[in-house]
Amino acid sequence: MTAGWSWYVIVLVAINILGCVWLLWWTGKRRPGDPAPTDTSHIWDGDLTEYNKPMPKWWINLFYITIVFAIGYLIYFPGLGAIAGVAGWTSSGEHAAAKAREDAKLEQTFAPYAGKSIDVLAGNPKALALGRSIFNNTCATCHGSTAQGAIGYPNLTDDIWHWGGTPDRILQTVLDGREGVMPEWGKVLTGMGGDNAVDYVVAYVRTLSDPASMQNNYMAAQGKALYEGVCVACHGIDGKGNQELGAPNLTDNYWLYGNSSESLRQTITSGRHGTMPAHRQLLGETRARLAAAYVWSLSHPVGKPPATTVQ
Fold first, then answer.
1. What pLDDT shows up at residue 306?
2. 218-254 as b/e: b if 16+ CB within 10 A
3. What is the mean pLDDT of the chain?
């Protein structure tokens, strides 16, 4: 609060208090020439008379005591502009103290799960219930309440993991986030193969999940050479990707940004930039473990053998 606003508040409070004192004093005293309390001439039904008697002294004194209490309150607590008050109380301090108490309760709740592997936590019903709650409050905004994702947001219920699907890799993703970047290759490919170069690569990439479609496919044949000149650095010669880079497997027919030709063309031409935020600071390690355990359980339910293909 600036000094100007602080003085504005102080003056306004002082005027209101002094105004209340003056009003009580002015209206609570009788002056020479005032009519008698019974002399109002307001009579109804012959015996109902309106009087004009002053308020009892105890009532007026109670108002004065209230004003004195208000002055003491404003001295003790911060109510006069930027003056802190002798108690040193602040709303931010009150919030911090309340937060510390609630955080201590949360720590007691989460303490039994600290440091445990997420595949172990996934077998604990109580841990899964907590993990699901954390997921719904934090992760469902992007991945959906069913965790099946959307265009640009991965489906967490299948066995396809661009950055690896082991417990440690999933936990690392939740804790520290991921930065997936697909560079813009439109100009490079056009320079190498002409105006149709991107379409050639799209055609070849589609054959990676259906090798039989490569036969007698002129566009795919043209795209194969372009792919091997540019794309293999991240996706590999066989198109199975690289989990260290987050480069997706192109042979599984799963497309994070959609499988239409237009979507694939845009991905190659203009690139993509996907960000998974880090949650270490937001959730803390134990809550992040619980959320990761819930995510891991979606593709590894109890009683189901682990998936043989982790991508």
1. 45
2. ebbebbbebbeebbeebbeeebbbebeebbbbbbbeb
3. 90
Indicate whether 171 pLDDT > 80.
Answer: yes
Helix (H, G, I), strand (E, B) or coil at 256: coil
Could you say which DSSP state residue 159 is in?
S
pLDDT score recorded for residue 307: 45
* Residue 111 identity: A
180 in the Ramachandran plot: left (φ > 0), alpha (ψ -120 to 50) or beta? beta
Nearest to 205, CA basis, from 152, 165, 253, 166: 253
Mean pLDDT of the 141-158 span: 95
Strands (E), the chain: 43-44, 48-49, 178-182, 272-276
Q: State the DSSP string of 167-204.
A: HHHHHHHHHH-EEEEE---HHHHHHHH-TTHHHHHHHH
Q: Which amino acid is at 151?
A: I
Give every CB contact of residue 117 below 8 A, 6+ residues apart in sequence.
Answer: 167
Biggest CA pair distance of the chain: 118
Return the H-helix or E-strand segment holding 137: helix 125-138
What's the mean pLDDT in 286-298?
96
